[in-house]
Amino acid sequence: MYIIDNGNQQWTNLHRTIINLPIKLKTLYNPPITTLASLKPLCIELEELIDSESGRIRAYGARWSLSSAASADSNGVMLEMANLNQVFRMHTYLDNSYSGSADRIRFFQSGISVRALNDFLNARGYALKTSGASDGQTLAGAVSTGTHGAAFQVGAMQESVVGLHIICGKGKNYWIERETYPVVNQQFLDALGATAIRNDEIFNAALVSFGSFGVILAYAVEYDVIYNLEMYRERVSHDVAKVFMEQLFAPDLSLNSNAITTIFQGITKSPTDAHHIEVDINPHDATASFISVMYKTQDMTEVPFCNPSGVPGNESITVVGKAVSILGDVFGNWLTGVLIPQFSGTITSQIQICKPFVRLPRGKMFDPTYATGGILSIELGINHTNISSTVDVLLALNSTIPFAGVFAIRFVKQTHATLGFTKFPMTCCIELPGVGCDATYEFYNNLYPALEAAGIEFTLHWGQMNDYDTNGAAKVRSRWGDAAVNSWLAVR
Ligand SMILES: Cc1cc2nc3c(=O)[nH]c(=O)nc-3n(C[C@H](O)[C@H](O)[C@H](O)COP(=O)(O)OP(=O)(O)OC[C@H]3O[C@@H](n4cnc5c(N)ncnc54)[C@H](O)[C@@H]3O)c2cc1C
Fold first, then answer.
1. Predicted TM-score (pTM) of this structure
2. pLDDT given at position 15
3. In the CATH hierarchy, which fold is given to the domain comprising 3-225?
4. DSSP E strand boundaries for 320-475
5. What's the gap in Å between 386 CA and the centre of ligand 1?
6. Domain boundaries, the chain
């Protein structure tokens, strides 16, 4: 028995936006592992479990999603996946036509945390191509909702996935990969007892499917040679930040080096080699926008933050979350009036500007977070050409409904995933982490109609909060379009 029945339980996500959901909890464990084929008994047990349950089944990772994406229906079955965290080399399992490097691809079980994954790779001289700004998610959780950083030439985390192992019921043990990018050979499929589905449309639909296609047991992920990130950061006014973002990309989506050199005068890096671009805005202070540009470098000498014990300030949801964790969940209840701008100021005051740069490995640049509770967050995906008008809508709304948080803006290349929220040719992702209080909900609820009224097309991150409780299906259809939704539903 590798799936343990924990009986009826109450399930709460990490940030307590879903509390005490009654569910049946089951935990998956690995069989004693020697080879890939050792996983077969677990696959068979899972196939049987799926067929034996009549209600909805949902696998979950680290419970970091603030939306209901990771939760089953009330009294449904939830599968804890985090113990499935092994890694296998793929050298002997690669198809002759695989065009990647055998040294830069591995088979990762779905429950491995992004942190453990990066640690594993770093110890062997490799690193993930990108990840979110914090790293406590599981691989499957992160990929299934379209988690991204700001590596605008790489895209979101799912772009590094080239195959996935999914169980959908008895006799439905599948390895899915693109027809246009074959990866594994028959020996691999035999080891897992899996049937291959080689089809681009199916692969792209399954990639971001938030637990609704089946239980994902593993992925084949491609990665890079290890690197450090060298970060340059400046504080500028809202107006300067807007001009920077407007001018950042040429019509062909190449980087406009002038936009970077105007802000970072004297930078010795080739501006167009930038890897990560991010802008954080305190909506209550027109002088407080922070532009961060990071470069990948093979120089492994670390140059730490000025205050190494302070918060690096790369992930606003983490900074807001830490502040609220310290102050307590009830904090939001008395956060009103002048205290709201003061709170946002406290958050952005932690964003460290260290000249000329900070140089750190990915795992130190984006620190782990243990913050729980008391925060809310949504994340918009918009076309980068709409950035100024969207910031204007946000600032106008903030003047009537003060927002107890910050606007965190990142740029992400278009995804291949059918329902990935980074769907625009260059998606500008605007994360709005705020304190858990009525005013934050009011801000979010008024934002969606305000964007619609301004004619700004947007999507929402599947792992953050959303407005899908009413007319969700129609909203998804209008945001992603009939072709994408019909394709995704047909594949499912
Ligand atoms: C502090 C914090 C920082 C964050 N930073 C970022 C960021 O920088 N960038 C960003 O894009 N997002 C960010 N997010 C959002 C976060 O990355 C996503 O919500 C992510 O999905 C969480 O991963 P998880 O492992 O907790 O998955 P969960 O929340 O547990 O699950 C997410 C989805 O994956 C599905 N799933 C999980 N495992 C499996 C499996 N084995 N098989 C099938 N389906 C599965 C679940 O059903 C669910 O639909 C952040 C969230 C927090 C709380």
1. 0.95
2. 80
3. 3.30.465
4. 358-361, 375-383, 407-413, 426-435, 459-460
5. 27
6. 3-225, 228-480
